[in-house]
Amino acid sequence: MYTIPYSLRIIILSAAAASLLSCAGKSTKPDLSHQDGPPAEQVNVAEIPDAVVQHTQRSKYGNPSSYVVFGKRYYVMSSGKAYKEQGIASWYGSKFHGRRTSSGEPYDMHAMTAAHKTLPLPTYVRVTNLKNGRQVIVKVNDRGPFHENRIIDLSHTAAVKLGIKATGTGHVEVEALTPDTASAKTKSADIKIKKNSPATSLQSPIPVTLQNKADLYLQLGAFSQPQNAHNLKLKLSSDIGTDKLHISNTLKNNQPLYRVRIGPVKSIAQADELSKILTQKGFQKPQIIIE
């Protein structure tokens, strides 16, 4: 049976976390008076290199076929190959520094690491901030985040490098890497830098396909029949009354698809609030779309 690791960030958000600690073999309740945050000392993150993508064995811990947190079951992927997803990133810091991660390693907020709900541990991923183009490579060695509408939880250092520390969250793309793919993409980025300009930074340029792709939408449904989309829009209009509610048409497998969306949403905080309202009114939790 899989035991919930002590390092889950969600424990600071709910009194129910006390019961999780006994499952993890910890007898002391967390000090809820101490909030999470950055390190007390100044750290030059520019001197901390990205994680090095390498072949590693799967961790003996943190890789069950599935596990349950607060009533929701998560299924761990058999492989991270070809994984790529856009969504919202968050970060965690001093509250959990030194504590055991789901992989069994101690959490180091100064290292280039991250937590993910379903990727195998460890997996190396490239994280791109879709707002500013910054990129980092981190080692996924922990589970989380279990906040709704979050896809990855970054170490403090990774968050600073990506430029999302101040806001707490950011629009990102997460792509799994292998030693082969990481090497090929690094060489490709090096060629572009040399060809375009005498680069003064080690930061790889953001791919053209990702530029300006940072508008945030909440998608409530996608239908092959336009009438179904209009019915849902009508119900949503009467219940939440937002002028940003619309139907977006696209093609999927050469077939029309009618998507009921709210957006663009001006902030992640607003997206969280709208998601909460929709859930309370009985609608399914919206899907976060960044484009």
Please, could you describe this protein's structure?
The chain has 291 residues and is an alpha+beta fold. The protein has two domains: 9-23 and 36-181, RlpA-like domain (Barwin-like endoglucanases, Beta Barrel); 216-290, 2-Layer Sandwich (Alpha-Beta Plaits), CATH 3.30.70.1070. Helices cover 21% and strands 27% of the residues. It contains five helices and twelve strands. It has helices at 17-23, 156-162, 179-196, 226-240, 268-280; strands at residues 66-69, 72-75, 84-92, 113-115, 123-129, 135-142, 152-155, 169-177, 216-223, 245-252, 255-265, 287-290. Strands 3-7-4-6-5-8 form a six-stranded mixed beta barrel. A four-stranded antiparallel β-sheet has the order 10-11-9-12. Strands 1-2 form a two-stranded antiparallel ribbon. A hairpin with a 5-residue loop joins β5 (123-129) and β6 (135-142). The protein is globular, with a radius of gyration of 20 Å. 32% of the residues are buried. Residues 1-33 and 188-211 have low confidence and may be disordered.
What's a quick, concise take on this entry?
This protein is an alpha+beta fold. It has five helices and twelve strands. Strand 5 (123-129) and strand 6 form a beta hairpin.
List the helices and strands and how they pair.
Layout: H1 17-23, E1 66-69, E2 72-75, E3 84-92, E4 113-115, E5 123-129, E6 135-142, E7 152-155, H2 156-162, E8 169-177, H3 179-196, E9 216-223, H4 226-240, E10 245-252, E11 255-265, H5 268-280, E12 287-290
Parallel strand pairs: 3-7, 4-6
Antiparallel strand pairs: 1-2, 3-8, 4-7, 5-6, 5-8, 9-11, 9-12, 10-11
